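Section 5.1 Outputs to date
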Amino acid sequence: MLALLLALGSSLAYGCADFLGGLGARKAHVLRTVMIAAPASLVVELLLWPVLGASFSPGAVGWGAASGVASAAAFALLYKTLAIGPMNVLSPVTALVSAMLPVGVGLLQGEHLGLAGLIGLPLALVAVMLVSAGSGAKVARPSRTAILLAFGAGAAIALQLIFLHQAPSDSGVAPLIIGRAVSSVVTLTAAGLMFWRLGPEKPAYAISAAAGVLDSVANLLFLLAARNGDLAVVAVITALYPAGTVLLARSVLAERIHRGQLVGLGAAAVAVSLLALT
């Protein structure tokens, strides 16, 4: 139950972070947004160091660095995807891809699910697909480029979560610190190399920083959830974050929510309840 609650918290934080990151990327080049978000996330994790501790063992450093590279790619691809839009379609597509890879890894590593889990796990994946459903001509259709970016972002997010899960369980927040430091360096280096292509627009500093802070909180909650539960279950619960993004997009941007998406949100609630029984 603790792992479930932590995963739900991670899902909520990811959904809010992605919405803010997508908004920030609409105001300036995506790298300008990530340049603010990634360091802001690192600051949060450094503040957590004295509270939660950190052990910088070779395993923690190695897996943390790998997650950082994946995180940098995820940041850029996801925010660019959400900036193109529509958010209420592309975010769930990304989430579905990001869930399937960790589920496969968890099952291959010998994780077992009870009857409720065997029903709840595929139901959660179906819920993500339902949340991503459109409604004919009344719903904006994503471009092929946006779909490809969404798949790439999902794969990068999945790799980040898998790498974090592989880090030693007694390493505290060390994998998060190393990962975010690496992603910040990668992002700032890329921005420096592409400086003349970033355009004159200034980033939305507050929105971008808030996205980074929430992403850091989401990573921490996922790491704690994965250490207290099965990766297959935790990854799927975390992947329900589009629910938050979709609802925020509806409230703030007036993006249409189709009836099928509402059914998907209901299916997600049922799936979470079943997984809680696992």
